[in-house]
Amino acid sequence: MKVVFIQPKYVGHILHPPLGLGYIASFLQREGGHVVEIIDANLGLSHAQIIDRIDRLKPDLIGITVMTSTFVETKRLAHEIKQRVNAPIVLGGVHVTALPEFCMQDTTADFCVYGEGELTMRKLASSLESGISINKVNGLVHREGNKIVVNPPRALIKDLNYLPFPAWSLMAPKKYSIAPVLASSDSAPVAPILTTRGCPFQCTYCASNIIWQCKLRFRSCTNVVDEIEHLVKDFGVRHIHFSDDNFTFSDKHVVDVCNEIINRNVDITWSCPNGVRVDSLNDTLLRKMRHAGCTTLGFGIESGSQKVLNNVNKRLDLSIVSKAIKRAKKYNITTFGFFVLGLPGETRETLERTIKFSKNLDLDR
Question: What residue ranges define each of the domains in the chain, with the CATH number in brackets?
């Protein structure tokens, strides 16, 4: 089966290869022998250009990943594809996982995949290829006449080392440039890597707990650094973005990854642009991270109001933030912060407090 995946255009502080699609693509290649292509609209492609390319490829299945910010764009794109290409469309990603039934109701998609996508997409592709019923494909939403059917959820993959590396040949890192907020500390080409999936915290503003069910799973340090070496050797990557939801949750995991990088003498620098928890960093860990090539850390601070943080179950004591930032800077690690305005319980007073708090911190940007 020929499968085409699409990353719609989005606006963000980082422009990365579509890592989730890369994982699903490589899994379909390895497990089902499927022919897969990835089209990323962020590489300057218009809807017309995307559809022309799809038309030339003549796929048997089209997959589109969806964030909330790209949902309207995806609706329009899916509708336009349907006008010219006779292939079923499946939606997946964060927004679909949060609202699977709504996404079917409000789009022309034939299927939606909610939750972790690799196994569900493999099952869907094989079912369509062989004509087997899709009613037993867990994690799938589909139509039966005018009725929308939500199949049972799929269990999370237990062993992340079982997954192949993302299909980097379909989304070469050198094609991507870094958005300005991170440009000054990074060396192109840059590639994102996930060393874990999930986060055990339950911050109410974050989508991680919807997708990963508040469970944290780890890749082995050997598996992680094998991928880094693959990216350095085969794609000329010079900087890694560890894109985990909570990279520094486990000291042991971070130290193991750092030691593996150091012991193999991998010539790479790296950063955590998704943000790390302020309360997870100590001198010993920061020293090890810097030795292994860490150059930049984002800090998930969110608000300068302790009351607002408590409202969203952040479980962070604001009194430690300034010390943590200074501690990172002591090891020559560049710092920046994430803040969210308009969280539940926000008032003009708390908003102004957050702005003042952020300006008083010794963040680099």
Answer: 2-150 (3.40.50.2300), 172-360 (3.20.20.70)
